[in-house]
Specification:
single chain; alpha+beta; five-stranded antiparallel beta sheet
Length: about 250
């Protein structure tokens, strides 16, 4: 039943060697994370320095990248919703979650704490996935089809290179109506979401072909010029592409 709503479940686990810090790009979607073992910290442009994350929370959507630091032996269980498909499960307007970390009991009340306890007491990854799926199925809201879904799919398919103005026209909405509905349902403005998808595609492409020059990257992803590319990249990561990949 949740096909088409959930992107993936993941387990992130480290050995007991040493701590690790790294940069994280925004995904343009909401995640739920369970810190199963040890602590995780993050530092973002919208927090006051390094903060310890709660053991179970809803995250995002974020419009900026951030830094993470994890203790040795850490273990994280998480699930990512597909962009635009999470409003079927949450009682709150999605744009209220932007750039926030919200404990699950603040989202679903006592049921959020019960979910957390069950996930932490589960014996394996498969059991955790089943627990979360059953929880979400019970809270599924059968909403009417939204034209914003098609716009989101188009932006992802085109790797953020499509024209937002054209998407508003195809959605049969005025530019103002389109921006308002998109922000309410996705949690990010159309331009923010487009930029996140595009820079994410740039990053994945560069990881596959690390010998590419910045000029080649900009050309591949249809930037007008290199300065436009650097501006977009910096707006997501806080750094120029050269500094980020060094």
């Amino acid at each position: 039943m949740l096909d088409g709503y959930l992107d993936r479940f993941e387990i992130f686990e480290m050995d007991n060697g040493s701590s690790l810090s790294f940069q994280v790009l925004p995904l343009g979607a909401i995640q739920i994370l369970f810190q199963l073992r040890h602590s995780v910290y993050h530092s973002t442009s919208f927090t006051n320095g390094w903060e310890k994350r709660p053991k179970a929370f809803l995250a995002g959507p974020y419009n900026l990248g951030y830094s993470m630091a994890v203790d040795p032996g850490v273990k994280i269980f998480s699930l990512k919703f597909l962009p635009g498909r999470y409003q079927n499960f949450f009682p709150n307007p999605i744009d209220q979650f932007k750039n926030l970390i919200v404990p699950l009991e603040d989202v679903w009340g006592p049921s959020g704490q019960i979910l957390t306890d069950k996930v932490f007491n589960a014996s394996c990854h498969k059991e955790r996935c089943k627990i979360v799926e059953q929880f979400l199925v019970r809270r599924f809201l059968d909403l009417e089809y939204s034209p914003i879904e098609l716009a989101v799919q188009s932006l992802i398919r085109d790797k953020g290179m499509g024209r937002v103005k054209r998407l508003a026209e195809v959605s049969n909405l005025s530019p103002a109506q389109f921006r308002k509905r998109f922000t309410k349902e996705i949690g990010l403005s159309p331009k923010e979401f487009q930029r996140i998808i595009r820079i994410g595609a740039v990053h994945n492409h560069y990881c596959q072909f690390p010998t590419l020059s910045l000029t080649q990257l900009a050309y591949t992803f249809r930037y007008y010029d290199q300065s436009h590319f650097i501006h977009d990249f910096r707006s997501i990561t806080g750094q120029s592409p050269m500094n980020y990949y060094s």
